[in-house]
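Deviation from plan, reported transparently: 3-isopropylmalic acid complex.
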Amino acid sequence: GVDKKILVIPGDGIGQEVTAWGQKVLATIAKNYNHTFHFDEGIMGHVAIEATGEPLPDSTLDKAKNSDAILFGAIGHAKYDNDPTLKVRPEQGLLKIRKELGLYANLRPIKLFDELLEASSIKPEILRGADILFFRELTGDVYFGEKKRTEDRNTASDLMIYHRYEVERIARKAYEAARTRRNKLCSVDKANVLEASRLWREVVQEISKDYPDVETEHMFIDNAAMQLIKDPKRFDVVLTGNLFGDILTDEASQIAGSMGMLASASVGDKVGFYEPIHGSAHDIAGKGIANPLASILSAALMLDISFGLKTESQRVIKAVEATLRQGYRTMDIANKHTENDFIMGTDAMGAKVLENLN
Ligand code: IPM
Ligand code: MN
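Because the crystal trials were delayed, the predicted structure below was used instead.
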């Protein structure tokens, strides 16, 4: 078996509740397949600000750099959302760890489990068979460009900036992935207006020449937002920048039924970072009703991408599928049209997945 160091960072809100289940699934896989996973824990976000004054303490960053993979929950707290003037914010922790670990490619697979066809607000015939893999650039763009505010506080700007090498490296990753799927890549930008997008498109066009077997399409972000809901099946790999990717993948979560279902993998230099795409959801935090499946599916992505354990990863996905087939649902994925579901909380749902793993 393999021997790996996993850092668990539950973070804030429902991150605490759901990440415990991602970790339990990893521990169960280790036991069943004779692997050794050493778990350590780190703090980040609002909990870290309260404890140390910083959203990402050096102790957590050091542990992160020395681990093989990281399982992360969520960060955020209502207090900051309602007070934009607060200078130290939970999100800074997440952005800093992405930058420090060189996690430039954020993979967000959007796949609808057949069992959840009725859970989405989109018509089943539009959704059936949709299977998209987003490559969201994660360490550039307007997220990391210079931020400014004039002295009189009345004018503000954020610089949207991309360098050629940043577009190149993620484009190559996305093309390689397209080759293992349906050989289609859609690059999303706003090249009709933005210079940073014109560079993006230019670079993707160049890289596309190395992948003549992959069909390349370029789409403007506004059109992409519409096409995604109108006909999600037309997409295979979608490649886009940090801000557009943030927005498009929340929209795409509706294709998978719920935000509570979507996992993501952030990769780049060395360490892999795995997290649900949902946030800390303070409105339901502490109630024990959050969906643990996104964290569990993030664990599955870790097994596959960071550790190369494809069989084990598939085993986790099958266990999730079996749980859904048995009719078990958290509130967010309850079937809107029938009453055949067993609606349960985070821990009961997590326990069902563990049962199906054994
Ligand atoms: C995400 C989140 C983050 C982002 C926030 C919390 C900074 O929305 O991972 O999608 O915008 O990248
Ligand atoms: Mn987001």
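The domain at 1-119+261-358 is CATH 3.40.718.10 (Isopropylmalate Dehydrogenase). We consider this an acceptable substitute for the interim report.
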